[in-house]
Specification:
The chain has 9 helices and 7 strands. It has 246 residues and is an alpha/beta fold. Helix 2 packs across helix 3.
């Protein structure tokens, strides 16, 4: 039987993150490990993740969430604000909050997931992280141009994510998207959508997850000019009539 004690998880988290030059204190690793254990326990009553092996989850949830920190482009300080689009079980929002101490809003359209993540942040004492049960189009009208960073882990096509993220971002703010192996057509559509929305691709970086668990590409977009169209569009328009596709 594999050792999945708290001490083993903390060791795995710190050692795996160190492979990418990401420094993690014992306190941070302890919080990240506790989050994982809370997710796995809650998953017994609510479907939050298909990954239930704790050591596999270290790579596929914790390390995967924090890969952007390995890039020189990633800048998020304790006084900054970020938004996690489609947080699910709190990834990447909770790990990013733990590591950066930034103010975070973790958003999902599924109420039960939001309730679970709210419980996680409360039990972990992460008072700078808040949850919202909302559609992104509706929320964007409420907190327009308020975020230094918006992040997402493959919850939709990149061009759609660009449209969702744009109204949240301050000028000079960044959108960080994690993908597996995006097709050239997806990247082309994203570049066209970015041009419409006022975002430009500033970095595209590739990583391999530990234990041969997958390839990741991190796309960093910067908001450099106002959008050429009014955003957000009506709920559902981003997926029904996606930008950037000829």
């Amino acid at each position: 039987m594999r050792d999945t004690s708290a001490e083993r998880l903390i060791h795995e988290i710190t050692s795996q993150l160190s492979l990418y030059g990401i420094a993690c204190t014992e306190r941070q690793a302890s919080l990240l490990a506790r989050h994982l254990r809370l997710v796995i326990e809650k998953n017994k009553v609510i479907n939050l993740t298909r990954i239930v092996d704790p050591l596999e989850a270290v790579s596929l949830h914790i390390v995967d969430s924090l890969l952007p920190l390995a890039s020189d482009v990633f800048v998020l300080g304790s006084s900054d604000f970020f938004l996690d689009m489609g947080t699910g079980a709190g990834f990447p929002g909770i790990p990013l909050g733990v590591m950066t101490e930034a103010h975070g809003m973790l958003v999902d359209s599924v109420g039960k997931k939001v309730e679970a993540v709210d419980e996680f942040t409360s039990r972990l004492g992460l008072s700078k992280l808040h949850t919202r049960h909302a559609r992104l189009e509706d929320l964007a009208c409420e907190i327009r141009s308020s975020q230094d960073m918006v992040c997402a882990r493959a919850v939709a096509q990149t061009n759609v994510l660009i449209e969702y993220a744009t109204p949240f971002l301050k000028m000079g703010g960044h959108l960080v998207i994690e993908k597996g192996r995006p097709a050239p057509e997806e990247i082309d559509a994203a570049l066209h959508a970015g041009d419409i929305c006022g975002l430009t691709l500033v970095s595209r970086e590739s990583f391999e997850l530990p234990q041969h668990l997958g390839h990741r590409e991190i796309l960093f977009f910067e908001k450099v000019k106002p959008s050429r169209i009014a955003l957000p569009r009506k709920v559902g328009e981003a997926k029904r009539r996606p930008l950037g596709i000829e």
